[in-house]
Every structure is written in structure tokens, then in C-alpha cells.
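Chapter summary example: a protein plus adenosine-5'-diphosphate.
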Amino acid sequence: MKYAQVLFPQKIIFKNQKDNSLEELNSTLTYKIPENLNVEKGSLVKAPIRNSQRIGIVLRISEAEPPFRTFEIREIMLPYPVLTNSQIELLKWISSYYYCPIHQIIKLFIPKKLLIAKETKKRTTKPKTREVEQIISSKKKDLTEEQEKAINKILKDSSNTFLIQGVTGSGKTEIYVHLAKYFINQNLQVLILVPEIALTPQTIEYFERSIGINASVIHSKLSEGERIRNWKDISGGKSKLIIGSRSSIFTPFKNLGLIIIDEEHESSYKQENSPRYSVQRIAEKIQELSKDQQIKIVYGSATPSIEIAEKLKNSTIKLFNRIGDIPLPAVEIVDLREEFKKQNHSIFSERLQEELRKVLAEKKQAILFLNRRGSSSSVVCRDCGFIYKCEDCEMPMTYHEKTLGSPTMICHHCGKILKPPSTCPTCKGVNIRFLGIGTERIEKEIQKLFPKAKIVRADKDTTSKKDSFKTIYEDFKNHKADILVGTQMIAKGLHLPLVNLVGVVLADIGLNIPDFKTLEKNFQLLTQVSGRAGRTDTKGKVIIQTYNPDNLALKYTKENSYDEFFKYEITQRKLLLNPPFSHLIKIMVEDKSLKNCQTKTEKLYIQINKILSKLNAMSEVEVLKYPAYMIKLHSKYRYIILLKSVNREILDKTLENIAKEIIMDTSIKIDIDPNTTS
Ligand code: ADP
Ligand code: ZN
């Protein structure tokens, strides 16, 4: 007789059960396998729990009879195991690495609908098979020398992981196409990860047309029917070309050979709720666990993350030129303090107005960009550019209009709370400004200046509905509007041939967020948004408006020098022992009451310090506590405890002691390798 240990996608709690451990025990049960069922490791099965039937996945098979009474597995849901050994390993690894109960992780691997037990009826309707459309292959492009070299290196080099660091418009996509073709011809599956697939149907089309086959697409906005169909095509090995967003990395591939991660620097590659995984980390783990097939990983970006660039510095391929030798747009920095002196009180500098006028006269297009993280912002003097900093921490304080009732400034380093000043402490000027403008205001002002121009706006308000960004984007691309006003979402890798001008209306928002990644993120954002200008025209121009023209993110953007940025930033990281030279774990405490939030944080902070002292590791781990940058979000107050150490094991040992408590408490969120410490 054989027995199967089945993992269910929900926590199973029995009467008298006190223990709430992280371990599988909590969601696995042992069953007898009936002789007539071909149950294997990785099979999806239906089994009884109390009076109901549930669907779960077989994690282990053993011959040893358990010391308790067992029920029988009822049914096998799919004729083949849905997870391979290495996928089961991956599932367990995610649970322990990211401190996430294992039953929550199955849902990443298997479509929801397949995990719900229904009365099984014999299917009367045949499953819909996808119509195989005739794909007309597009004309072959001659590769540039840089592209050719990159492809050869990736295919021939003994290394398995590569980074393509190529300026915006250098033809990275075409490289992916060639690599994908090569692997598909070897009968291997290729996964192409893109940051926001729902927004870019033309990406899918481009790949399908260039490679000449249909793609299976996996992203969060699919209908459950589409998801299951694509999932089966992939796990059954029928699909070779898979294009997806973050979550598609968990599809049970049949024989994966290549993973491409485009726009590697994008924050959407990290999940914001539990498990807070990063797709880069998962891809590397998949590569490591894959035994039968070597998997290659190719990252691509004009502005790769510091971590990836450092890790892959010996297998980085650089592309310096835009296709067609179109120069990168000239970046001009406009000092807003000077505008103020000139009595220009508009939110647009004279230079930006002038360039806008030109673009409109030439029947081209412009993008006006505003950083979204501006709900709380810094306090600056419009006369001298002075930024209000905490006297103790030297960190810029942030302005909050309503968060705490009346206007306040908060130091997100030590938690100090002050009333904002009415005059500048340096020049005694009275023009203290709390930086912050909205996209709506920009739209209104621009319409006043150019009454005939057609303007569209893309931000959270205008794109909350499904497909609304797509519509705005398509309209803009088809020149139904002259100016696009928008936030972060328009900085993504969009190809808009008519855009000749990009204006960053107020670069200062976001420049001073107290976070070890602030410079990196600002440089990436500004470079990416600049890259939207002049993609087919030599007259591309970028105008960045700021009160802080000396800021390094602006300097490196203007010089268009990723290398200089990297050199500076990696030195800083080393100096301050920030990632990749250390490991971080962020614990966020939330509560509707500020007081409770502070008390809870304090308690946890003391508890962690006690554990560290017991482990004799006080000197090895730095523990910080401070209010989150957005101290109040969704009507909850938020405090952070940050653990930092060069030694990852000691961090794990520390957490082990409190992991159960933290996981059970929904007001505490744990983030391993956080993307932001603020
Ligand atoms: P990136 O992803 O590096 O920003 P893209 O892949 O979008 O750049 O390429 C920019 C443009 O150049 C696209 O319109 C693409 O079709 C075109 N392109 C790429 N490679 C070639 C080539 N070898 N010859 C001609 N055009 C190319
Ligand atoms: Zn302070």
C-alpha cells in the first residue's frame, strides 16, 4: 500500500490544534492511494477532509503506513503530474525563504479554478481549442553589429546568465527575438517576462510576427478560462513561446530553456503582497534547481538595477547606439529658482514653453511627466532652494498636509514631528513651498497656454478601469492628441515615434525620499522617461525642471551615463553596507491607531534586540525603527523595523524565533530583500 502526502491550498485547522507552525504539517494530510489510481508526486488529486472534498497536490509518496487512520484519495484531476520535482522544491523554498505559509504558495503555481472541488460531471462540451491563426512573418531585419555580437556571446559563452545593458532604442527586443527563435528551434520553451503585459499588446504581436508562431500569454488580467487553457498548453508542452508578467514565472513549464527578463529594473517584478518575491530571485532559483535542462537567463535594461549589474558585471553586454544611429535626446536642466527670480510664476519654465510651442508647430508630440510619489513631499524655499532637514538626522523632512490633522513635517529617520516653518531659516525668505503638483493641474495650465492643443492625461484617476490606459496610449500613439500628461506609467518602454519632447515638470518630487535606492530609482525613472523622446527623430529633447539642479540623479541623466552612475552608487553601497553588500529584512507594522502602531513596533523592536543579544549577534545585525515614508496609507499608520546584516544566516536565525507570531499577525508584514526601506 502506498501513501500520499497531499498539500491543500488552505490552512487546515483541527480541533485542539494549538500549533501554528510554518511547516507543511499545517496544510498537508496523508491519504491512502487506491490501487486503480496512478497517483504520482506532483499529481493534482481530490481527497476528503471531514465532510467535504478538497483538491490538493501530492508532495510526497511513501510506503510506510502512518500510525493513524487514513482516508483514500478519491480522484486524480489531471492525467499527468502538474508539478515536477524541482517545482515542488521551488514551492518549499519560497515558503521558507519568504516566510510565507506553504498553502498560500500553491496558488501561484496552479490556476484557482483547478483548485476548487466541484461535483465532477463528465464533460459534454469539448474543450475549446485555440484557432491556429496563420501568422504572417514580418520582414527580416538585418542585425546591427552590436546586436549580432550580443546574440553570439549569449549563445556561445559558457556563462548561463547575461545582462544586456543597452540604451533606450538600441534594439534589445530584436535580440530577444533571435534568441527565442534559436531556443524554440531546439524544441525548448522560452519565457519572455515583461513588466506590464496588459498594457502592451503590440509587444506580443511583435514577437509572434517575428518568430512566426502563436504566443501563450499569462498575466493577472486574463479570464480564468484563458488562464487555464494557456496554463495547460504550457504545462503540456504544446506552447513554446510564452510571454508573461511576473506571475508567469510559476507556470509549470515542460522544458524551459530560456528566460528573458525585459526592463529588469522595473519595480513590478517584485510582488507587493505575501509572498513578496522578486522574479529575478525566483528565476535564478529555477535555474539552480533545474537538473535535466540548463536554463539561460537574459536580463535587459537601459538602467539595470545595481544588484544585477554588480552580480553580472563579468557577463554584461553593452549596447551604446540607438538603431539607425539616431542620437539620444539632449537633456536640458532648468533651474526653477531662476524662473522664480524672473517673475515667471507659471509651473512651466520659459524654455519648456518655447519647446512645447515648437513641437506643436511641427505637428509632433510631447510628453509631460510628473513623479507619482508626491502625496507627501519635501519642504523647499523657492528663493534659495533650501530643503528643510531634520537637525538630528540630516534627512530631508517630509510635508504632510492632513495625515496628522494639521500641517506637519515628519523625519522618517528618527520619527520627529515638527510644525512647518513660515520663513526660510537660511535666507529668511517667505516663499516656502511644499512641493507637490498634480497631473490635473498640469493639464489645466497647459490647456490655458495652448488652447488649441489636444491633451490626454494618464494617471491613477484616468486609468483605473481595465483597458483605459491602453485606450489612452493607442489614441496618443495614433496622434489623436498632441500632449500626454502622466505619471510613472508613461515612463515604461513605450515606443512612440512622434514624441520629440519630454518635459519633467517637477523633478524634485521623489528626489529626497529617505531610502537607499532613491538615487537609483530617480536615475532610472528620469532616464527611462527621457528615452521616450526622439526615438525616430534626431531632434529629440528633454527638459527637466527642478529646484535642485545639482542633484546626482539629474546629473547622470543629463550625461546619459549609466557607467558613471553605477561607479558612484556602488561605492556608496559598499561604504554604507547596503545591498548588494548586505541583506535586508523589512518588517512593517500597521495599525488604525498611531499609538498602537508605535507601541507594537516598540515591543517587537525590543523583542528582536533580546533575541540578538541571546544569539550574541548584536554587533552583526543593525536594527532600525522609524515611521514609513507614507506614514499613513489606506487609513492605517505604518512603522518599519529594518534588519540589516552582511550575514544572511544570522538574520534567518533571528527571525525563526518570531516567525510564527509575525505570520499569524496580519498587521505585521515581512519583506525579504525589500525594494525600498521607506
Ligand atoms: P529597445 O528595446 O532597446 O528600447 P527596440 O527593440 O524597441 O529598442 O528597438 C527600437 C526600434 O528599432 C524598433 O522599432 C525596432 O523594430 C527597430 N529595430 C531593432 N533592430 C533593428 C535592426 N537591426 N534594423 C532595423 N530596425 C531595427
Ligand atoms: Zn530625524
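Key point: Residues 594-614 form the longest helix (21 residues).
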